[in-house]
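Lab channel / #folding
Pinned by the channel admin:
"Please post every new chain as: sequence first, then the structure tokens as a reply. Keep commentary short and put observations after the output so the thread stays searchable."

First post following the new format, from NK:
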Amino acid sequence: MSETTAQPTPPSDGKVALRVLVVEDSEFDTRMLVGLLRAGGFEPEFERVETEGGMRTALGQAQWEVILADYNLPDFSAPRALEVLQESQLDIPFIIVSGGIGEDTAVAAMKSGAHDYLMKGNLARLVPAVERELREAAVRSSRRQTVKDLRASELRHRSLIENTSDIIAVLDCKGMIQFVSPACERVLGTSAEALIDSDWFALAHGEDRDRLRAEFEQALGHEGKQFAIKGRFAAADGSERVMDITASNLLADEAIAGVVINARDITERLKEQAAIHESEEQFRVASEIQQHLFPRKAPQLDGFDIAGASRPAAATGGDYFDYLTTSDSQLALAIGDVSGHGIGPAMLMAETRAYLRILTRNRNDLSLILTRANTMVGEDVGEERFVTMLLAKLDPEKRTLVYASAGHSPAFILGSDGAVKSELRRTGMPLGVMQDAEYTVSKPLRLAKGDV
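Reply from TO:
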């Protein structure tokens, strides 16, 4: 059996269209899930299936953005549904929503490839989980396309190198050109006709010419052997081209009676290698900068256990967290990120960190701190950079927390039971986006024993 919405409903009131495949035998539970998604800002177009055949048909007939699956159904199950999805080779976020599975079962499902699991009795994480998995799916799709494009580009370039880019020439024993392929005009800017009977080594860079000629003369004494030679050559436009040359002594071959050279232009390859090396060095430096941004230890505060950690990504950038002290001697917690990766974002976050440390020593109003930081950062960032920052302040006596967020991803306060008590949403624009941006401070959030 399956159930679909009568007609796709166009997004309204700013809601985000979402195509949801629900593997569920309960129509009530399906409606509940769809209602929660709609309340969370989505406009779901959904289909309910409860058998393997129904799921296979649904996967073949429509493009789904997320799958919500109950663990146990009369004739189906979430593990089997996951296998069906994997067999289809479709990359769709698969979230288990069940009423009664143990932790071991949930962990096993995650190891098998499920992206998340939620309990039907606690669906506060449904919308955030769907939002997160949609973002992750978009990242995976982008990566696959990038890899596909890179592979296609690599095949094209390899074909060009092997078939059209090499200069093939035949030289006599004095190095005079007897034959040269048309590729010489593309590489060196001189036609093949103009090079016939000219000195090959006259094309070489002045600093490499004598060495190249000496290596060529060495090849003359070894009939039938190949020699590898590398050197710089001057193009007609004055640029230098680095050539990787293989020379074969075929003077004794009556059909050729010369030294055959295969000259491959490796200038761009060397530039790419240098660029990769420079990029790797930049990321190494960025990683060192980032590590120095993190506090060495957490502060001690009566009544609170404080700890922080950052898991570095493959591409280092401007991730940051810190413990600060405001002018009224209260503890402030900062979490930030800079758009992009590499040494630029790392340096920008180092500047932002310095600004925050200075500002918090002289101010206690989070709104004023972020407003001033926004002005400072705005003078340093370009149009393509911005900084997100969550700044929170603890009042240990009242056991409360206030915060202001400059465009940072939401944070959460969890109760001792693991449920979300408060979501720390954005209260202003990211730093550096708008010079006159304003930042509001939240109302005090009361913290209870066991809250995280």
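NK: Confidence is low (pLDDT under 50) at residues 5-10.
TO: also worth noting, The chain has three domains: 2-141, 166-265, 277-446.
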